Amino acid sequence: MRALVLHPVRSKDGPRSPQEALDEAVSLARALELDVVGADVVPLSKARAGMLFGKGKVEELGQRIGELEVGLVIVDGALSPVQQRNLEKAWKVKILDRTGLILEIFGDRAQTREGVLQVELAHLSYQKSRLVRSWTHLERQRGGFGFLGGPGETQIEADRRALDERIQRIKEQLRKVVRTRGEHRRARQRVPYPVVALVGYTNAGKSTLFNRLTGSGVLAKDMLFATLDPTMRAIALPNGKRAILSDTVGFISDLPTQLVAAFRATLEEVLEADLILHVRDIAHPETEVQAESVRATLADLGVGPEAPTIEVWNKVDLLDPESAETARAVALRSPEVRVISALTGAGVESLMAAVADALAEPMRDDTVHLPFDDGRRRAWLFDRKLVRAEHPTEDGYDLDVRWTERDRSRWLAL
Q: CA 333 to CA 372: how far, in whole Å?
């Protein structure tokens, strides 16, 4: 489908460069394999309630839409349902705003049952106030949950009661999936492996780093939201210990609130991680803006600045020699920063040493008492070589153990 991308910009907009924001919107559109035939930054003195743009600008853009023969216009910003309907009538094309576009991408990428349910829930919640009958007769060209969906996909019913019933059914299915995830998480807690979560702006190189550290074949492409469903693998640390590495969905500025809520369960791995690796594309011209967006999203999820974090400045191979040297000089003064290239492997060894140091915990000596019939917890201690001495008593055993606080917590949780 031929598409035109528009980025409205106000004089009081935030620190992002309008051109960089437009380029990102184009990348989002291409992630859906749309044929982007035009992309414009559109100055906006003030937002009009009815159409967002003024009458003259609507006519000017309508002429451009006709010349380019596009069937879809993407407005890189938030549109009210009224604005969206009015622009569709004026331009006689379909309109997607930024939230709708990201939802389409997520619907196209979700693989696991949980991911599919979460995307559908987010999309139905978004469309609840945008029920437009005319959308349902459009030609369906691909997977997803919006008007770009493929044959046989669930359409949004015009009847609000049916829509509400569908949302409730999905929420109930998700509750069951979340319970299963909770059981899996508790099972992992019984294994004394810390969890390291990769987070970062979309396309920062998380999956490339994940593949380098784990030897996995997770999809890693120069494409926004190449990874959607979380992936977990065990990795060996330089000190001989092991950890679980989790690759998560990429964050993005102005992440739709529906997705922040819907993917809270998916991002629980970040909430419970022992260490967060914030992967940054240090070669991107707006790397600082992207980093702030990630921090803001983490804060929305309940991850505070006190959470143990290492900033991984990735793609150093794309920097000029002087900038690369400056980045490495900053890292030398900052123990919480590591400069790497996940593609070439440069700096990864230093990163892994920093991960091992960050996960190292002080050992403590304790004595615990177990009855004779508590063989499971006794075997757990011996399997992990935590027992220094054992003394039989009248009703069980006293065991002298040396362990970390994490070992103790997981043993108590058995």
A: 54
What one-character DSSP code corresponds to residue 372? Answer: T
253 three-state secondary structure: coil
What is the DSSP annotation of 185-246? HHHHHTTT--EEEEEEBTTSSHHHHHHHHH-------SSTT---S-EEEEEE-TTS-EEEEE
More confident residue, 266 or 338: 338
**By the 8 A CB rule, do 7 and 43 touch?**
no
Let me know: does 94 contact 72? Beta carbons within 8 Å: yes
Residue 153 scores a pLDDT above 50? no
For residue 235, how many other CB atoms are within 10 A of its CB?
Answer: 18
Helix (H) or strand (E) holding 406: helix 405-413
Average pLDDT for 220-239: 68
Do 350 and 375 sit in the same domain of this protein?
no
Could you tell me if 167 and 296 lie in one domain?
Answer: no
Q: Considering the domain boundaries, does residue 183 fall inside one?
A: no
Q: At 408, which helix (H) or strand (E)?
A: helix 405-413
Residue 341 and residue 347: Cα distance in Å, rounded? 7
